[in-house]
Every structure is written in structure tokens, then in C-alpha cells.
Automatic annotation (TrEMBL):
Cofactors, names only: Mg(2+)
Source lineage: Bacteria, Bacillati, Bacillota, Bacilli, Bacillales
One GO process term, biological-process aspect: CTP biosynthetic process
Family of this protein: Belongs to the NDK family.
Protein name as annotated: Nucleoside diphosphate kinase
Record-linked SUPFAM superfamilies: Nucleoside diphosphate kinase, NDK (SSF54919)
Coiled coil (UniProt feature): none
Length: 148
């Protein structure tokens, strides 16, 4: 089953949106494989956002993502990568539709509440950056026939 890496950014944690955000992915029917509240080192931030190294916003992005705890998660389900990006909404909250996480809670592009992997390759890379294999659990739900 496909997996993705999602992360409530420091602004979302400080605004006490962890529960609200987890609820959206649970309600959609996805399956939580792993989660933890953690601090990100500068080194990990630079690796995670490596594709943006050299861009004008890179330093602010690294400073922001290391400024406070994040809530890192791995979610599982069919097409979870693409559907999660839809649930998150566009990168800039001014373009994100109401009903999406960024559309409902975000105000600024630099503080847009949540991160989500954008492809199978980045999902695999990001999951292995943030989680050890033993931190991802396999378990079944009693209503497994209807949800992931
Ligand atoms: P993310 O990686 O955090 O899930 O966001 P994304 O895929 O929607 O957007 P991406 O292009 O990967 O950009 C990563 C983060 O960099 C910040 N950003 N600032 N000032 C700017 O023009 C600008 N552009 C991007 C955003 O916080 C974005 O989430
Ligand atoms: Mg991205």
C-alpha cells in the first residue's frame, strides 16, 4: 500500500492544530503507520528541503522548520500521496481553496501549516529521513474492509 510523509509544521503545532489535522486524514479513511513530535536539526532540514537549496526562500524555510517542534507522520492508503496534497491545498494559502487545510488555516506561504510528500520518490526519501523502520507499525483495524 502506498505511503506518504506528512508533517505539521511549527506554526501548526503552536496553533494547536495537530488534532484537527490528524482528524482530517483519519476521517478520509487513511491509515496511520507512524507519528512523533520532534525537533528538526538544521542538518535534517537542509536534507529534507534539499531540492530548494539555492532558492531565495531557502534560509527562511530552514530557519522556520527548525524553530519549534513538528509533528511527523506516515500515512498509508491507495493514492495517499496525491490525495494528501489535495487535502492540504495549494502551497500559498492565498490560492488554497476553503475546505483544504492550508485554505482553512494558513495565512502566509512561509507559514503554511503542513508539509506533504509530492511524489513516490520524495515520499520514500522523506520517510527514511524521519523514521526508522521499527517506528512504522503494522496493524489492522476491525473495519479493515471499508477503510485502509
Ligand atoms: P511543502 O514541501 O512544505 O509540503 O510545500 P509544497 O510542496 O507545497 O511547496 P514547495 O514548492 O516544496 O516549497 C516548500 C516550502 O517552501 C516555502 N516557500 N516559500 N516565499 C516563497 O516564495 C516560497 N515558496 C515556497 C513554503 O513554505 C513551502 O511550503
Ligand atoms: Mg514540497
Amino acid at each position: 500500500m502506498e505511503k506518504t510523509f506528512l508533517m505539521v509544521k511549527p506554526d501548526g503545532v503552536q496553533r494547536q492544530l495537530i488534532g484537527e489535522i490528524v482528524a482530517r486524514f483519519e476521517s478520509k479513511g487513511f491509515h496511520l503507520a507512524g507519528a512523533k513530535l520532534m525537533s528538526i536539526s538544521k542538518e535534517l532540514a537542509e536534507k529534507h528541503y534539499g531540492e530548494h537549496d539555492g532558492k531565495p526562500f531557502f534560509k527562511d524555510l530552514v530557519d522556520f522548520i527548525t524553530s519549534g517542534p513538528v509533528f511527523a507522520m506516515v500515512w498509508e492508503g491507495e493514492n495517499v500521496i496525491e490525495i494528501s496534497r489535495q487535502l492540504m491545498g495549494k502551497t500559498n494559502p492565498k490560492d488554497a481553496l476553503p475546505g483544504t487545510i492550508r485554505g482553512d488555516y494558513g495565512m502566509f506561504v512561509g507559514k503554511n501549516i503542513i508539509h506533504g510528500s509530492d511524489s513516490p520518490e520524495s515520499a520514500e526519501r522523506e520517510i527514511s529521513l524521519f523514521f526508522k523502520e521499527e517506528e512504522l507499525l503494522e496493524y489492522t483495524s476491525s473495519i479493515k474492509e471499508w477503510i485502509y
